């Protein structure tokens, strides 16, 4: 189970403008780089690294494809999944379709979950 | 002993500053009403004339992450930076520096431990919008020292509603027992029904207006028994995936005591119900 590692990707990228831009510009290359050299670092510590986490193929592809619907369904944390993709899509959607248009499109893509128990975000 | 002079519990809305400072032609229709309500709420704190603010909020995965996630944490620092890059990006909230009250943090930490509440602590806590939003709304001059307390409302497993109420009671006792002549206000923020990153997000109302109306009534009357009978993790999830922020309202009712609120107001916004409560203490915690 690597839900933690997916969340760690979302967390580290959302809080760093340089990483976010790299994820926007070249998602496949960036996800590979993150997995090899950013993800293993312990948070707040550039020296020590962890060897115990990795992404599954499905998780990796969802991140590469900015597939927030798949990430929601895998149990990525709803707040991290929202804020990272707001960071990428809010401004272009707003310029094209007005305020909150990205957020409402995200909700529309998840409508089939209404009335059901959402995937657990527990890690 | 210190004197608790007011307890404030409210929702925190990171769009408030941007919504009310944008050029008038760009403001949302609700902005003038929202501003009036916030200014009236601000007065409920000003009239209590506090010297220090005990502030309860919840980090939204800005500083605290799943590698080391406390259930309850107290800041013990001389000052606190506020606002993370992604909050500036998304909400337009500027940077702040808040003065701390380290001696009071130190006392409260020990007191809470003595009451068997195992608080984590931080000597370098950066504050996020859960605490800077109420500074913006009820103390924009940012002229008072703060004791920040964070709760986990985001990363399951979460503590029970009952435990949140008990933590509130313990915080109240720690304030009452603080050997000082300071006037203390406790300010906490959370959510009513709220959905983030799910199918019910950013609708025309909050995801569960019926829960919102009921929650306001419970808090207005200080009915902790009804809250504990009716509010569970499962029921909050049914009302919206981020409704667990209501746990902070329960905690604040613990600080105030199970009494009717002296000030109640609310505003139905485009995707959530805003709510504002103030209690003035009638007597010290038992």
Automatic annotation (TrEMBL), chain A:
Protein name stated in the entry: Uncharacterized protein
Taxonomic superkingdom: Bacteria
From TrEMBL, chain B:
Protein name: Extradiol ring-cleavage dioxygenase
Segments crossing the lipid bilayer: none
Gene Ontology terms for molecular function: ferrous iron binding; oxidoreductase activity, acting on single donors with incorporation of molecular oxygen, incorporation of two atoms of oxygen
Matches recorded under InterPro entries: Xdiol_dOase_suB
Protein species of origin: Martelella lutilitoris
Start and end residues of each Extradiol ring-cleavage dioxygenase class III enzyme subunit B domain: 8-261
Keywords: Dioxygenase, Oxidoreductase
Domain of life: Bacteria
One of the Pfam families matching this protein, by short name: LigB
Classification lineage: Bacteria, Pseudomonadati, Pseudomonadota, Alphaproteobacteria, Hyphomicrobiales
Keyword Ubl conjugation in annotation: no
